[in-house]
Amino acid sequence: NAGIFPPPDRRDAVRVAKKHLPAGAAVGKAPPGFLDSFMPDLDAGFPGLRVLHLDPLVLTVDDFLSAEECEALKDLTHSDTAFKVQSATFSQLTASARTSTTWYTYHTAVPTLVGRVAELTGIGPDCLEEPQLVR
After folding, report:
1. Which conformational region is residue 12 in: left (phi greater than 0), alpha (psi within -120 to 50 degrees), or beta?
2. Residues 32, 34, 36, 37: what is their CA dihedral angle, to the nearest 10 degrees?
3. I need a surface site. Which of 90, 99, 109, 123 has the fewest CB within 10 A?
């Protein structure tokens, strides 16, 4: 039994074959050492942590924030502590069809989020990018 992540068919492949797992899989189902190669300080025992995709690596954490914490983040988009940005990446024509909006905020405005990310990743808050809220 090859497990949930089958080995690649090609002999020259150096990674596990791309695998999309909409429901996710336990972190322990990833190939040995795979997550360590990307995130050596990741807390693989973090409650709710699942692997959705291996290449590119996509992780999800169930109940990472409570409903109240999510509402507080959404409320920031109507305050002076979050800054709405317009992307210079897209042309005016493309930008008019986009449906997402991004706000940046300071670490100090979202201490719960930053603290939880640091706990999960093992990366100190001083090494994290500014938090982004996307709608």
Report:
1. alpha
2. 140
3. 99
Q: What is the pLDDT of residues 41-97, one digit of tens each?
A: 999 999 999 988 887 888 999 999 999 999 999 999 888 888 888 666 655 666 566
Burial of residue 116 (number of CB atoms within 10 Å: 0-12, 13-18, 19+): middle
Closest by CA to 109, choosing from 135, 85, 133, is 133
Q: Token pair of 57, please?
A: 């690596």
CA distance 43 to 48: 11
Structure tokens at 54: 């291996």
Residue by residue, DSSP assigns 25-68 as: EEGGGSPTTHHHHH-TT--TT-TTEEEEEETTEEEEETTSS-HH
The tens digit of pLDDT for each residue in 110-124 reads: 999 999 999 999 999
Whether 101 contacts 87, CB under 8 Å: no
3-state helix, strand, coil in the chain (%, to 5): 30, 20, 50
The pTM of this model reads: 0.72
Of 48, 113, 124, which Cα lies nearest the Cα of 74?
Answer: 113
